Amino acid sequence: MRRIISFMHLSLDGFVAGPNGEMNWIKAEQEIFDYVGKRISEGDTALYGRVTYQMMENYWPTAGNKPNATRHEIEHSKWYGKVHKIVLSKTMKNADLPNTTIISDNLSERIQEIRQQEGKEILLFGSPTATHSLMQQDLIDGYWLFVNPIILGQGIPLFAGIKNTTKLQRVSTRPFDCGVTELNYTVDR
Fold first, then answer.
1. Do the domain assignments include residue 85?
2. Shortest CA distance to 4 belongs to which of 144, 155, 157?
3. Does residue 17 form part of some domain?
4. What range defines the domain where residue 134 resides?
5. What are the backbone dihedrals phi and psi of residue 118, each rounded to the nearest 5 degrees, phi first?
6. In this structure, are strands 168-175 and 4-11 parallel, antiparallel, or unpaired?
7. Is residue 152 domain-resident?
8. Is residue 42 within 8 Å of 120, Cβ to Cβ?
9. The domain spanning residue 94 has which CATH number?
10. Taking a C-beta distance cutoff of 8 angstroms, is the pair 168, 186 a contact?
11. Per residue of the chain (189 residues), what is the pLDDT tens digit?
C-alpha cells in the first residue's frame, strides 16, 4: 500500500502559517532545496488542498522556463510537470486539468483507492486544511517537518482537531545551517 507523507514547514510553536496565511517567515535556502529535491524526486504523486494547488499551479508550470530561473526552479518545475496531482477540494470542478485528480467527497474511500494503485509514496505538500482532514481520518503515514527558528504566537496550527493519540517513530533529524531543523517521523501503527 502506498504511504502518504506530509511535508510541512512550521514554527517552533507549531504553526504552519500566520493568522492570515502568512508564510514569509519560512526559511527556504539552497541547502534545504537540495535536500528536499532529492527526497521528492522519489515520489510520483503530489497531494494538495485547493489553495496550495492553485498557488503551485500559478507558479511551477513555467518557473523553470524563466531566463533567470534557479537550479531549484528548473528541477522542481520539471518534477511538478510530470508528477500526478491530487487535489482535495469541495469547490473545484474536475475541469480537464492535465494529470490531476480532484477529490471532493468520500475522502477516506477515494484516498484508500489511490493508495491501492501502483506507484510510489504520495507526498502531501503544505495544505493545512487538507492535512487536518487526512489526520482526522488517520490517513497520514509519516511527517516530514521543517521546524523554522521562529515563534509566531498565533496562526494556523499543524495539529488541529486531533481526536486520538497518534504515536510517532523518529526516522531522522537534520539541522540546516540556516537554523531550520528537519524532523522525519513515521506513524507508529
1. yes
2. 144
3. no
4. 28-119+128-141+159-187
5. -70, 140
6. unpaired
7. no
8. yes
9. 3.40.430.10
10. yes
11. 999 999 999 999 999 999 998 999 999 888 998 899 888 887 899 999 999 999 999 999 999 999 999 988 999 999 999 999 999 998 887 667 888 999 999 999 999 999 999 999 999 998 898 999 999 999 999 999 999 999 999 999 999 878 788 999 999 999 999 999 999 999 998
Residue type for position 39? R
Residue 33 included in any domain: yes
pTM, full prediction: 0.90
| CA neighbor of 136 nearest in space, from 111, 102, 169 | 111
What is the domain count for the chain? 1
| Sign of the dihedral through C-alpha 18, 4, 70, 177 | positive
